[in-house]
From TrEMBL:
KW Secreted (keyword) present: no
Protein name: FAD-binding domain-containing protein
Family to which the UniProt record says this protein belongs: Belongs to the 3-hydroxybenzoate 6-hydroxylase family.
Sequence ranges assigned to domain FAD-binding in this UniProt record: 7-75
InterPro entries: FAD-bd (IPR002938), FAD/NAD-bd_sf (IPR036188), MOase (IPR044560)
Source organism: Acacia crassicarpa
Gene Ontology molecular function: FAD binding; monooxygenase activity
Length: 96
């Protein structure tokens, strides 16, 4: 069996592993990402990214690409299904 020596091995190709690998790559540091799953998981219908998440994506150099595909939330309102009355409103920051 062929053996390879890697300086950095990242276990798990979730967003944390891939972001770490991309960050290292931008610094010119190679890494090997190991993933146990054979397939991409395609569950869910939306991904909510908060301001600090966008800052992290900007730092990785991919925020601009993703922002072209996103809808910015300006706030949310919760409503009681029993009374139909608004129970709370939250204004979210508009500047990123
Ligand atoms: C239903 C749902 C909705 C969510 N919605 C949002 C959202 O809208 N916004 C948001 O910011 N967050 C959301 N989250 C949370 C977000 O998915 C997690 O915080 C994020 O995926 C964590 O990333 P991670 O890379 O740390 O872990 P994971 O995404 O869990 O990735 C870990 C990876 O490691 C692999 N792995 C595990 N063990 C091994 C091993 N021994 N060897 C090799 N590979 C291995 C796994 O297969 C997996 O691919 C949601 C979570 C769920 C469950």
């Amino acid at each position: 069996m062929e053996s390879r020596v890697e300086d950095i091995v990242i276990v798990g190709a979730g967003i944390a592993g891939l972001a770490t690998s991309l960050g290292l790559h931008s610094l010119g540091i190679r890494s090997l990402v190991l993933e146990s799953s054979n397939d991409l998981r395609v569950t869910g219908f939306a991904l909510t990214i908060w301001t600090n998440g966008w800052k992290a994506l900007d730092t990785l150099g991919i925020g601009n690409i993703l922002q072209q595909e996103h809808i910015q939330l300006h706030g949310n309102v919760t409503t009681s299904l029993l009374t139909g009355q608004q129970t709370s409103t939250t204004a979210l920051a508009t500047a990123m």
